[in-house]
Amino acid sequence: MLAKDIKTGTVVVHEGAPVLIRGITVHSPSARGAATLYKFRARNVLTRNKVDITMKGTDVIEEADFSRREVQLLYSDATHLFVMDKEDYQQYELPLEDVEEELKYVTEGLEGMRAMIYNDGCVGLELPAAVELTITQCDPGVKGNSATSRSKPATLETGLVVQVPEYIKEGERLKIDTRTGEYLARA
After folding, report:
1. pLDDT of the residue at 100
2. Translation elongation factor P/YeiP central domain: from which residue to which, for each copy (predicted)?
3. Residue 83 maps to which CATH number?
4. 41 with 77, same domain?
5. Half-sphere CA count of 180, side-chain side, radius 13 A
6. Would you state the pLDDT for residue 28?
7. What is the pTM of this model?
8. What is the pLDDT of residue 151?
9. Mean pLDDT by 10 residues, the chain (187 residues)
10. How many CB atoms lie within 10 A of CB 47?
11. Which of 33, 32, 30, 24 is nearest to 55 (CA)?
12. Structurally, how many domains does the chain consist of?
């Protein structure tokens, strides 16, 4: 797999160990003929240590051999999130700090959530591209402001705050992009 094709949530082999990509920064060259650099923030799946990887866009890195299993949320406590495999009812626990970004989108009954399984252990969650969440708090729209494309902050049921169009009301269900955290449409 080319470095420029790696996405957040991909698991690759770096220095003989599987690492989960958590963030990507692209640095464009300032000189002619220079290569674009990709900087990856990752976490070693086995040791849980943070890893920084810098590569050119044409460098090749091996994708790790993982299985992805459909899971559902069971519950979470102060330190862990518990999910269950929908096929064989195996339960997995994940430290909350490892799934901090994904928690903003996880609700009870979320369809399409998959666990990444490596050596019979769950090492991360993969979310669907978009999820539906309910607005729990937002300011009412001001009459007469609908002609302009103004936005306002809205707090969703998971605590995530997104910018929504002025005409959206409290209690509505919205589609949110899990990759960018942005409002897509009404659900």
Report:
1. 85
2. 68-123
3. 2.40.50.140
4. no
5. 7
6. 86
7. 0.71
8. 87
9. 86 88 86 85 84 90 87 92 93 88 89 87 87 92 66 92 91 91 90
10. 10
11. 24
12. 3
> Does residue 62 fall inside a structural domain?
no
Question: Residue holding tokens 């080319």?
Answer: 2
- Which residues are CB-neighbours of 116 under 8 A, at least 6 positions away? 11, 20, 66, 67, 68, 122, 123, 124, 125, 126
Tokens of 148: 């302009």
Give the separation between CA 70 and CA 52, rounded to whole angstroms. Answer: 29
| Greatest alpha-carbon span in the chain | 60
The secondary structure of 96-120 as a DSSP string is GGGGTTGGGT--TT-TT-EEEEETT
Query: Cα separations (Å) of 149 from 135, 141, 182, 185?
Result: 20, 12, 16, 14
Distance between CA atoms of residues 135 and 158, nearest Å = 9
pLDDT of residue 176: 94
* Segments forming the whole domain that contains residue 160: 130-186
**Does residue 44 lie within any of the structural domains?**
yes
Q: Where are the beta strands (DSSP E) in the chain?
A: 11-14, 17-27, 37-44, 50-56, 67-76, 80-85, 91-95, 114-118, 121-126, 130-138, 151-156, 161-165, 173-177, 183-186
